[in-house]
Amino acid sequence: MIIIDVETSGLDPKKYSILSIGAVDFDVPDRSPFYRECQVWDGALVSKEALAVNGFTEAECFDPSRGLFEDSIRAFWHWVEQSNELTIAGQNTSFDRDFINDSFRRAGIDFQFAFRTIDLHSVCYAYHLKNEIPIPLKNGHSALSLDKILEFVGMETESRPHHALNGAKLETEAFSRLLRGRGFFDEYQQYEIPEYLK
To answer: Where is the Exonuclease domain (predicted)?
Structure first.
């Protein structure tokens, strides 16, 4: 399982571009995580709202020193090829999958991640149901955002602005605590795992 997080220049992969990718191989804890930034693909739009979330500036979006789009996507594909299991996971995984699959196509890579993904929200929701823990609601819907899930597993909320590698690592840590009852990264050892997860 590969935990993935992307930061983008907007919400629609047909109009906007990936700006950075962070990924962790859940099955190989000793493997180095992947992180890469890139300029937007030629013709991509940039949304001020998206930049407010991820902290990139408009100038950085078009800066070739951040890495050419195709080169960064090919580097990510090379990292993915080294994985034994290509199921992707994360928070709101369909968003990341759609951007990555569109980016693979744009970079001429003949591969698409499957529609079957593992979503952190769904795993945490199921954990609540199984253990008869009330699900936090907002406007009648689940309010299990990444920050709420991180709090539930004993972590601090995600720092702002969002960062793709930080997001992928936090999501990996949350998956590990929910599914295995133990941490994944040594750097998060100071955050005690709640007894209800052990």
So the answer is: 1-184
- Bond into 161 cis (ω within 30): yes
Helix or strand or coil: residue 158? coil
Please count the structural domains in the chain.
2
Of 106, 133, 152, the domain-final residue: 106
At 34, list the tokens: 């992947």
Question: pLDDT category, 11, cuts 50, 70, 90?
Answer: very high
Query: 119 is written with which tokens?
Result: 């979503």
One domain for residues 133 and 49: no
Residue pLDDT, tens place only, 92-110: 999 999 999 999 999 999 9
Give CA–CA dist 23/3, Å, rounded: 5
- DSSP character string of 69-122: HHHHHHHHHHHHHT-S---EEETTHHHHHHHHHHHHHHTT------S--EEHHH
Give the per-residue pLDDT at 149: 98
- Report if residue 112 sits inside a domain: no
Q: Could you tell me if residue 111 is inside a domain?
A: no
